[in-house]
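[audit] Reproducing an earlier prediction to check determinism. Same input, same settings, fresh worker. If the tokens differ from the archived copy the diff job will pick it up downstream; this log only records the rerun itself.
[audit] input (418 residues):
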Amino acid sequence: MLMIIMGIYTLFVLISIYTSVMQIGYVNAAKRGKAVLLSDNDFIKAGNYSVAKEKMGIASIFTDYIIFIFWIGFGVKFLENSLYFENEALLNIAIVMGFLVINSIISLPFGYYEKFVLDEKFGFNKSTMAQWIKDTLISLVMTIIFGSLVVWGIYAIISTFALWWLWSFIFIFAVVILINMLYPTFRAMFFDKITPLKNEELDAQIKDLMDRTGFVSSGVFISDASKRDARLNAYFGGFGKAKRVVLFDTLIEKLTTKELLAVLGHELGHFSHGDIYKNIAMVGGMLFAMFAIFGNLPSSIYAELGVSQSPYIVMILLLLFMPVLGFLMMPIMGVVSRRNEYAADRTGSELGGAGGAIELANALKKLVNENRSFPLSHPLYIFFHYTHPPVLERLKELGVDIGNVDKSALGAACQADI
């Protein structure tokens, strides 16, 4: 049985690397062709950035695979034998959090490389080393504090209920919902400086959009995201009266008022269609499947690993295999999500009036330019990774004539120069 589990993880790694290799080959060929949505120079730069990110992703996947083999073959047993607490709850917390902290430390070089090498080279990084260290330490401390509480909760459930996997799923699902509610507040407290929107005219226009879709929020806020990153973004966070609209200052700076309202109209389209609840339901389905599988593993698995069938071992196995199930679920979630994006685009266009589609299309073009997003991707990569439709497809749906797009790069996708 252990060999089957190892085989499933290995297959996941091979498919992940294969899709990345195909993407690298495709982008390397496409960037030498006719530029789309970008200037010739920026088109090549965006392609180079996409390829560099994908190569880093392959290195990360391979590293995760080595770490997985370490934990399965030796690490879990070592951790179990190295830590001792008379209190069972503390023992479970120490072992699981030890596992998480070690993995977090191992991933730090990738975070550093992405921020201070890749993003620095391509002009995205605005953060200082001191800011990055501060953010990393805050994230680690929050992981330890809140992670320990979650581990304690699951330990208590496993120790109390025969059908522990079902109650654990309900508990974790509730935690996911709580995180969605509190995310804007915690981000404002520990990471970004968030202030109310002071542009009264823009604030009134945004609130008019919200009123027309029935969206009730605690206000419209501006995030000083430019101190870390040059990319454009915005998000709607929270539930009920805790909902808030947060605009990155970079978005305010680069988009016109009409373009900004078109983007927000798109996001409000998601709200009016109940997409956030659909997404949470899909995440719930994935979590349910995960707990159902690992809540009913045969005892022989633990014997083959040479470890006890303890709550902390169950939790570590769940954490190790969650990326696999997430990858398998992604195509299904991607299909639903891409359909939702088209519907939100239509709503955003309608909210913008006669010129709404044009303003949204202009905003999408600016997002591609400012975020240096390469507008072309291999179909296989889209299938496994894209939650949003390719921007060219979205522009077509909005009635924009993008001309003929050269697709000859598909023939070169298997010639990636890694």
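[audit] rerun output stored. Observation attached for the diff report: The radius of gyration is 23 Å.
[audit] end
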